[in-house]
Amino acid sequence: MPNKKRLLLSQLPAVDQVLREQYAQSLVKEYGNAAVTRALRNLLANWRQQILQELWSEGELVAALADLSAALKQQVQLEQRPSLRPVVNATGVIIHTNLGRSLLPQVAQAQMAAVASTYSTLEVDVESGDRGSRYSHVQELLCELTGAEDALVVNNNAGAVLLTLAALGRGREVIVSRGQLVEIGGSFRIPEVMEQSGCYLVEVGTTNKTHLHDYERAIGPETAALLKVHTSNYRLVGFTESVDGADLAALAHRHNLVAVEDLGSGVLLDLRRFGHIYEPTVQESLAAGMDVVTFSGDKLLGGPQAGIIVGKSCYLAKLRQHPLTRALRIDKLTLAALEATLRLYRDEATAIQQIPTLRMLAVQPTELRARAQQLVAHIEPRVKDLADITIVDTLAQVGGGSLPGYDLASVAVAVMPKNISAVELERRLRLGAVPVFTRIYRDQVMLDLRTIQPSEESLVQEALCQALTGR
């Protein structure tokens, strides 16, 4: 080892020596000896690597040692920070899968906290004192809102599809269009889900065209169901044709088969009221004659992650009795959030106002521009020498495998830093005390107002100023 490296390494203090210092003892009182010792060892190990890789000069090491108390406190706080924690979504993707999908309404958050803090009525009939069903908390609500005879909820929509096929089609054939054999994310594919359910997949039609007679020709003595999968995460355009849900359901019923639809993102309100493109609703699917419909709770519905199953009582009774229902059982916190979210749908205006996903879909660019102007007015005087800041029209996305290929008119604050690259600014924002996730476009960091919550704007101001100044 060169003498210079050896000399610098010798200047690093011993762990025990640092722990005897007053600032370290203060941290021990607050965080505990084990946490402070672990943080100190990690900090010194990092500094040791800086020296060994010749990234630090003697002057830089001296400066670091002079600020050891602050560095240790920062390291302790960093290691105490939860791994799963809040972030600001400034990407313009409303249902951002990697950032947790839909934001929960405040009433849902409050109901989760209330149920988590004490015992609850999860599986008890308060009137009789006997055991009840956890599904009763949302069953009537879902039937009321969708027009279904019955409802059941599991932990996610893939589980809902798996349970439905296992209970209604195991050991028999289920017919589905080749153009609907989608991959639903995380490399999970509909054919694989069907295989795990124990039913036999029968593909009909082609990628771009499937006719009613394709289904009819494939029906045989071993057929249990006709499956329609809404391609909510991609869209075929051009020379295409698919079978309408009403026609498919009628065909199934003529042959005494079950008509099942995986609606995917699941929406209870017609999105055209917000000026967006058409997306089939759960109510429309049931009205078309589908016997069983499955959809997600945390996409366009705007609630927690859940797999919601609605349809005819005779089929859902079989699902309830299947062992997978227990394996895929929904927990009390999710039920609390889902019930609170569904209650908001009893009044559409209330739902749009209080469910963040719907609110972000409904907000108009004029309102976003006004918010952007206020944001820039607070930021620009503080960083005018460090960045050029403008307000630009941009395009946001629904995300979460919903409304593929459809963009929403939006407004963003565009930041072009003068002394660092846009990539470095994006990194600093992402690694801040509260991470701010953005996107880069033409060497500018874009902060899309459609997904920044009004309550987060002051936080974004501080995060951006700190990232630009490096402090």
Report on this model:
With 471 residues, the chain is of the alpha/beta class. The chain contains 21 helices and 14 strands. It has helices spanning 3-10, 15-19, 22-31, 33-52, 58-66, 68-80, 106-116, 136-146, 157-169, 190-197, 212-218, 245-254, 282-287, 313-321, 323-327, 332-344, 348-354, 356-362, 365-383, 422-430, 457-469, and strands at 88-89, 93-95, 150-154, 173-177, 200-204, 223-229, 258-264, 292-296, 307-311, 387-399, 402-417, 436-437, 439-441, 444-448. Strand 13 and strand 14 form a beta hairpin. Helix 3 packs across helix 4 and helix 9 crosses helix 10.
Shape: elongated
Unreliable spans are: none
Secondary-structure content class = alpha/beta
Average pLDDT level: 92
Output the number of helix runs: 21
Trace the largest sheet across and list its strands. 3-9-8-7-6-4-5
Give the proportion of residues in helices: 40-55%
| CA gyration radius, whole angstroms | 28 Å
Tally of strands: 14
Terminus-to-terminus distance: 35 Å
Strand content: 15-25%
Please outline the major beta sheet.
Answer: 7 strands, mixed
Question: Notable features of this structure?
Answer:
471 residues; five-stranded mixed β-sheet; 14 strands; 18% strand; elongated
Compact description:
It contains 21 helices and 14 strands. It has about 475 residues and is α/β, with parallel strands linked by helices.
